[in-house]
Amino acid sequence: MRDMDIVVLFSWGVGVTLFTLLSAVVMMFIWALYYSAFKRVRLYCQVRKELRRVLKQPVAFEPLSGEIPMMKPSFEEKEFKDFSLIDEEILTMESATALLKSLGGRVEIEGKGDHLATFFLPDREVQFLYNAEKGYLQFDCAIAVVSGIHAAACQTIDPYNSGRLITLELSFDLKGLEIFEEKVSAGCLRHALEKAFEKAMGEVDLGNMLRSQYHILPWEHKVVDPKFSSYSLRYLAALALIGDVETLDSYHKSFMNGERLGFETSIQEEHLERAIAIAKAVEETKQPSYDLLQQTAKSFSMEVESYDYFKITDPNFCNRRRSGYENLLEEKREELRQQGYTVYEKDTICEVDGKKARPHILYMKDGEVEYMDVKFKIDTENY
């Protein structure tokens, strides 16, 4: 009997021990599940928080073809909206970029590593390069003035045209913003920008350029290139941007009387009506603009989200032009060397009329320093 009690007691002890161990294992398992779930919830919350932060910023898309991106956009406009510097403050690359953005510019990293700043004026765009390759800020790299407003006018007149439209190149200067100091102040950059914008708007008359390119009447124009939109459409867009209401109105009356005057069959009365509306707006405001085109499109119940598509977006345009023009200048330098002149290296800074300058070509003639600036002619050949 006693032996039996011992066996029962032993069995009970073993049972309690096994139950305790099993309970501990179950508790550990439950705790592990709870901890894992807690970590997942915390991670989920962190991911949600980060996702909300990222979605507040515009997305920078990378090319799908595997090619190296031509530019690396910076889209922190809000960060620089209220940015300001006193005129006397000396700029660094970071503060110069912030200042340009605060003044309304878009800044990107161009394919060769230069910073590219783009400013959007009413009917044209200004692009210039700057860098710090020599250990200090340089704003004398290159500046281009271009316009996509003629292409935008074509699209407003005939939204369904499928031809290629080309940006107008208005001017280009290798000297950029013409700042030749090693230490550039905020005030100096602001002043240089004002001068550049004033020059960009005044140096090339868009109306005169369009008159020159589209002086041939459509029915007398013999060159036809199927890659481009019709000459008739481009001709009407030019008249509209010039504000030539009288000529457009006479064409419209002829169309209403059944006389097409030799225009291509793609041109209809509605296209002339839109061109007249643009021309009247230009005549009234004395200044064509993308906003004016957008308002005209809306008056014809045409849905237009933005005309930004027509504004210059090619980040390599400035550098391509700079490379081409520098090659031409080097040919001229070599020509002077062949004539026996001592020619200074490119980008040499000198003093002209008491001010620092960087002539295109600097050379010695009869023991005296001479300089030469080459005027580059913009190709305005029609297509």
Automatic annotation (TrEMBL):
<protein>
    <submittedName>
        <fullName>Uncharacterized protein</fullName>
    </submittedName>
</protein>
<keyword id="KW-0472">Membrane</keyword>
<dbReference type="InterPro" id="IPR054259">
    <property type="entry name" value="DUF6990"/>
</dbReference>
<dbReference type="Pfam" id="PF22499">
    <property type="entry name" value="DUF6990"/>
</dbReference>
<keyword id="KW-0812">Transmembrane</keyword>
<feature type="transmembrane region" description="Helical">
    <location>
        <begin position="6"/>
        <end position="34"/>
    </location>
</feature>
<keyword id="KW-1133">Transmembrane helix</keyword>
